[in-house]
Amino acid sequence: MRSLGQRIELLGVLAHPVRIRILEELTRGVKCVSDFEDFLEISQPNISQHLGLLRNHGVIDFYMDGRLRCYFLVDPIIPDLLEILKTDYHKSLPAPSCCPVTKKGSYPGKRRR
Fold it and tell me: Do 54 and 13 form a contact (C-beta atoms < 8 A)?
């Protein structure tokens, strides 16, 4: 089981649009750096930095095929997290009818933001 610190660190590593797109591609199968260059509009060194960060945190790994580095997912939670992030929720959670401790008060109907 991941500690709270490990969970927070994983979310921090994932919290970048390029890394999310890389991981979405890797859920479809093994990819090489040149595959990422085809759809990401950033330089190869920048792609390699993102791949390195994901690898250093144990999210992905690679194997060598000649001169190519072929990347693949290692962490089994990643496909689940990506699916959750894609989910479109149409409703909010229901508001409480009263305070669970004092059993008094009532929800006024509008949430403060």
Answer: yes
Q: What is the pTM of this model?
A: 0.82
Structural domains in the chain plus CATH codes: 4-86 (1.10.10.10)
List the structure tokens of 30.
């093994």
Task: Give dist(CA 67, CA 24) in Å, integer.
Answer: 24
**How far apart, in whole angstroms, are the C-alpha atoms of residue 53 and residue 88?**
29
CA 104 distance to own-chain centroid: 40
Sign of the alpha-carbon torsion through 53, 57, 60, 61: positive
Residue whose token pair is 């939670």: 77
What would the pLDDT profile of 72-90 be if each residue is shown by its tens digit?
A: 999 999 999 999 999 998 8
